[in-house]
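#lab-general

N.A. 3:47 PM
ok so I finally got the sequence cleaned up, no stray characters, all 258 residues accounted for. can someone with queue access submit it? mine expired

B.Y. 3:52 PM
send it over

N.A. 3:53 PM
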Amino acid sequence: MKELQPTVKFIEQITRKAGRILLKHQGSIVKVADRGSGDYTTQADLASENYLVTAVKRRFPDHQILTEEEGIKEVSLQKPCWIIDPLDGTRNFTFGIPLWVVSVAFYDQGEGQIGAIFCPRLNEFFLAQKGQGATLNGQPIHVSQKSTLDQAFLVTNYFYSPEAAGKNTAWLNSLSGRILAASILNCSLLEICYIAAGRFDAGLYRGGKPWDWAAVKVIMEEAGGVMTKLDGKAADIFYPDHLFNNGVLHSAILATKP
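B.Y. 4:20 PM
back already:
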């Protein structure tokens, strides 16, 4: 959609700028709030979010905004809505590991229109617009074509909830010996972008929030991938648990669910 091109340029500009803000904070990290379950907020999270929210409000004062630090609130995706994760991979960020990202998505008419995810340390910028495909640093990306489980490299997230960990471990145990490998990078959004780029083949995630899923949903689908709930039903960014894959492996992975 040509009318969205200025918004695409804007989202790339502010996502990159937020990444640069985070880079300035990485050498002097201060925790300012404990979210519980081993998660926390840093001054860097707040600085990134403050910049992004201010930039969006200045450009689009009538648009809705949903952010990680503000938490869940009622919004309508039928109307213009920005969904922001100012820093995904906070633990990696605080330990000096380069695998962390900024995520910004724009939704309207009930669908994700634009998704942008930037990993400043690796200088990897993932961008997708509905109907226009997905790119990494301006080059088109596509999910892998792996067709059997024994070829599949799977990623997942780490759980601080014993219940969620137990459920996920049971499924991973079911997959054990059937897949090529499994990994955890402690940055779910970057992992999912890597599925979109064909580096990984599938991902199993629990406990996500809208800002975790909003941008990657657009990127995955535009890269030819599949995102569904863990029972195979249609994805919902307000639902916590999702399966991501190249589409070819979808049925085979679901069949291993205990």
